[in-house]
Design a protein that fits this description.
Strand order of the largest sheet: 1-2
Distance between the termini: 31 Å
CATH class: Mainly Alpha
Keywords: Cell membrane, Lipid biosynthesis, Lipid metabolism, Membrane, Phospholipid biosynthesis, Phospholipid metabolism, Transferase, Transmembrane, Transmembrane helix
Protein name: CDP-diacylglycerol--glycerol-3-phosphate 3-phosphatidyltransferase
Radius of gyration: 18 Å
Transmembrane segments: 12-34, 40-62, 83-107, 164-182
CATH architecture: Up-down Bundle
Largest sheet: 2 strands, antiparallel
Helix content: over 70%
CATH topology: Four Helix Bundle (Hemerythrin (Met), subunit A)
GO molecular function: CDP-diacylglycerol-glycerol-3-phosphate 3-phosphatidyltransferase activity
Number of domains: 1
Number of strands: 2
Shape: globular
CATH superfamily: CDP-alcohol phosphotransferase transmembrane (TM) domain
Structural class: mainly alpha
Function: This protein catalyzes the committed step to the synthesis of the acidic phospholipids.
Order of helices and strands: HEEHHHHHH
Length: 192
């Protein structure tokens, strides 16, 4: 297994650590940061989440720079992204920090595209991430981070950046999902 794939797998292993910090009340209290009152456990969860999300960029950069792109990586990378995002949005929804309707739309698209990829792989085809899929992932990561950090950079200015990013993530998620299905409709219409 090459280094980019190991980095991707490390992202998967960080998900339970993220969930522990997010969901377990350790009684650590909270602190005020740039106008936002942030529970220490949410801050710790955000740090782990951001580190895990950053490995998405790192594994891709490393794979492209050293020509280590593999079919395993093309499969694992989007899967790791989906697992991380699913954990974040389900956890945040359960804590009433993220709207359920947005989580359902985002996760429905994620499962639908995963299904499309599975059907394609059955006929030996790998559907790589598109540019819209990459922007969708970035918007989801920024939205989850803004919610986890209680809108820290924008709270004093009264800008609902976290809400803006939730809507941006939903729009890009739906658009990229439609884009995948339009560009790969042959996968579903093929008689193989």
């Amino acid at each position: 297994m090459n280094i980019p794939n190991r980095i991707t797998i490390s992202r998967i292993f960080l998900i339970p650590v993220f969930m522990i910090f997010l969901l377990i009340d350790f009684g650590w209290g909270s602190f005020l940061l740039l106008g936002a009152d942030i529970p220490v456990s949410h801050f710790a969860a955000a740090v782990v989440f951001i580190i895990a999300a950053a490995t998405d960029w790192l594994d891709g950069f490393y794979a492209r720079k050293y020509n280590l792109v593999t079919n395993m990586g093309k499969f694992l990378d989007p899967l790791a992204d989906k697992l991380l995002i699913t954990a974040a949005f389900v956890g945040l929804t359960g804590m009433d920090m993220f709207p359920a309707w947005a989580a359902v739309l985002i996760l429905s698209r994620e499962f639908a595209v995963t299904g499309l990829r599975l059907v394609a792989s059955g006929s030996g085809e790998v559907i790589a991430a598109s540019i819209w899929g990459k922007w969708k992932t970035v918007s989801q990561i920024v939205a989850a981070s803004a919610v986890l950090l209680h809108n820290v950079l924008f709270e004093l200015a009264g800008i609902p950046f976290d809400t803006i990013m939730i809507y941006t993530a939903v729009v890009l998620t739906v658009f990229s999902g439609v884009d995948y299905f339009v560009k790969n409709k042959h996968v579903l219409t093929s008689s193989d």
